[in-house]
Every structure is written in C-alpha cells, then in structure tokens.
Task: structure prediction
Amino acid sequence: MARYAGRKHLLMIRNYLLTALRNLWRSKAFSALNLTGLAIGMASATLILLVIHNEVTYDDFHHNKATLYKVWNRDIVNGSLFCWDGTPHPLGPDLIHEYPAIANMCRVDDRWTVTDAGNKKMSSHVNIVDTSFLSMFTFPMVAGDPATALQGPDGMVVTRSMAKKLFGDKDPMNRSVLIEHHRYKITGVLKDLPTNSTLDFEFLLPWSFELRNNSEGNDWSSNIINTYVQLRPNADETALNTQIKKTTIRHSHNTSEVFLHPMSKWHLYSDFENGEPAGGRITTITLLAIIAAFILLVACINFMNLSTARSERRAKEVGIRKVSGAIRSMLIGQFLGESLLMALLAAILALVLVHFTLPAFDTLIKVPLAIPYSNPWFWGAALAFVVITGFLAGSYPAFFLSAFKPVSVLC
Result:
C-alpha cells in the first residue's frame, strides 16, 4: 500500500512538472519576462549577500578565534569615557605572568619599512611580533615551521605575494633581506592573507627587531603597540576583565583601565560609546540585509502581479480541472510547482549573471569577492533561497487562481 502511495505521489509530481513546462513553453514571451525580472532581483540580492558573508566571516579561518582577545584601554578624556587599542610594551608579559586564565599573549607593532633584496627596494607593510604569533593566529603556511620560524633573532616570515615581489619565481626560503641596516633570513612563507582578515601585513619580523630599535620596552606610559591574548578554554571573560582592569594603574601614574575585546567582535562591533561596545559595521550589514530582502520582495511582488494579471488565461484551465475532479489543494500544488520551477530557472540565470558581473562589482566596492562553489553550505543556502523565493512569489497566484469557481469561468 505504501509503495502504491509513493508511486502515486511520484506520478503526481511528474504530472505537475510536465504541465508547468508546457505552460512555460506555451507563453514563451511572458515566461521570459517573468523569469528575467525574478533573476535580476535574485542576482542583485546575491551580490549583496556575498558582501554580507564576507563581512560576517572576518577572521573565521583562525582556529582559536573563540579564545582570542585584543587588549583595550578606557579612560576619561575631555570629560568623556574614551576607548583605544594602543597598549604599553610590558602589558602583555605582565598579563600572562599574573593571570593563569591567559594561556598565551602576543604583541604586534604595525608599521611600514623599506626592504632591500639585492637590487629590489620597496616600501613594505610589516608586523613586528612575539614568537607566539603564528601559534595564536593560524595563518596557513606553505613553507617553514610556524613553531620555530620566528624564534631566531634574524628570521622573518613573508607572504607568498611578498616573496614573489622580492625574488620572482625563485624559492625564497633562506634568502636574505636587508631591513634598516640589519640582514634577515626568510624562515617561512605564508599563503596570501584572506581579504577578510583583520590583521594585515606583507611580512613578519621577530620582537627582537622592536627591542633593537625601540627604547620603550619597559615604559608603561607609551601606548603605541597592540597586545593580544589567548584565554584558556574555560576562562571566564567577565571575571578576568574585573581582575585585569587596574593593571596599568598599578605600574604607572596612568588612570586608564584595561579590558578585553573578543575577536568575534573586532570587525563588526568596533565602535565604543561611554566605554562600552556600541556597534560599528554591524549597522551597515543590517542595512544591507534589509536592502537585499527588499529587492527580493519587489522581484517577488512583480512576479505575483504578472502571474495574477495573466489569471484570465488560466481561469478556464482551473474550471476544467475542477470539473474533472481536481480539488483545490491539487491546484495550489500545481501553481506552486510552476512557481518553484520558475524560481529554480531564475536562480540558475541569476548565478550566471553574478558570475559575469562579479569582477566589475569587486572593482566598484574594492573588495575581491568569490562565489563559494565548493562550500556545501552555499548550495544548501541556494536551495533554501530558491524554495523561499518560489513559495513567496507563487503563493498569492496559487491561492488566487485555485479559488476560481467552475460555474463563473466556464459559462
């Protein structure tokens, strides 16, 4: 019995599909117009969603993202509570020494410097870091060992694109580069950084470079570097913030309090008011999501209007089907099936449109985006996108057309 019922449902779906294809083919001009409008709306929404995806996945490639924090300061400045992320040199070592909840720490000095590799001189973006940098931040390496690459005083790690700038297609490993009258040897090569990475650099130098060129190593009053910490898995962020807030005050005459800002909020929640997080780019992302939804809604309303305007041509079909024994739920299924088929075709066309317009869109927004074809989540989201759009666009026509009475349409 169950086998018979299953076969019956398959035949019904097959019948719905064949009828939908015949109706689309019979009204080619109408179908093309409706399909194009829906596809353009879906393509526009998809481009915006790619931007949103790029923003909300910032720094997701770091394995330790859930336990990484940036150290910030807050203090009264001109009568207002102000926050900033510059910290003194000795803060990081003091934090990891005093608080067991902190598993690791790393200091970063972000600057530009001149690199000299043979006859190639160029201004380059460098991060001067502690040896723990490559264990805390998991930037993928293509050559070298992340555990030892920055341990020596003269080692340096470059990105793949920086290596190409310096040495072309030659193997950069163990080659030397002159930086500010000191020669460094390349001990590691990283993949080029993802576009949605908060940390940005072309190469890394060990903290010994900072000690060699900076006399403020023990100065608690100079807030010129960034400090990052990694908490232990079960650490209580709220309790730790309470414990560490007086750290700078205890070591200097400064009155600024210390607090931790989690990596999950670096990009989207980077604005502070009265010493507390107060949004940031999340406001723009929310606005973009509303715009994408509005564009898709307009495309669906346009689809509904065109389908409803064509209802007179389908009225007799509905009447004949009802006289032949079709119930309203079957007609609703038929029309929703046609809508889902249109949504699927529109989605395919929209994907083609996005593929060919993406380079120009990247140039416009100055952010390189890509369609994640290899990501199963993308295809799952695309399928949900098609189903939601199909039901949204076809719901009103389906219920409107299926409500026709045979007597009023056949007489």
